[in-house]
Amino acid sequence: LIAELDENLFRQIVSNLLNNAIKYTPASKNIKISVTEKGADFKLTIEDEGIGIPSEDQSEIFSPFYRAFNTGNVPGSGLGLAVTKRSVEILNGTIYFNSRENEGTVFTIEIPKRRVNGEKDIAD
């Protein structure tokens, strides 16, 4: 699988999603990462067996400074998922998730494998 995309943005996306999975998943549980092709896109999935996102928090989870009720004393600013979503959008991609409290979360991003003609980098 070969993809042409902004390396810094992609690193930010993967780092934020993986850091959250690690932060909210007990050491005895699993985290799975997969990358597959889906037509003209590639699909990255990060699945954890962590604390999950309560259903009442799911509609706000990409809002800046928003933290789910069940995060407790785990440090965080509430910016990671907002930045991740914006980074995915800059790459003309989509991000979505499925989560159940106390069972885990699956975040999926789909990003075009090739740059669109005339697409600008974040620095442009």
SSE topology:
Blueprint: H1 7-23, E1 31-38, E2 41-48, H2 80-90, E3 94-100, E4 104-112
Antiparallel strand pairs: 1-2, 2-4, 3-4
Task: Describe the model.
This protein is α+β, with helices and mostly antiparallel strands. The chain contains 2 helices and 4 strands. It has helices at residues 7-23, 80-90; strands at 31-38, 41-48, 94-100, 104-112. The chain has a 4-stranded antiparallel β-sheet with strand order 1-2-4-3, covered by helices on one side. Helix 1 (7-23) packs antiparallel against helix 2 (80-90). The protein is globular and about 40 Å long.
In short:
This protein has a four-stranded antiparallel beta sheet with strand order 1-2-4-3, with helices on one face. It is of the alpha+beta class and 124 residues long. It has helices spanning 7-23, 80-90, and strands spanning 31-38, 41-48, 94-100, 104-112.
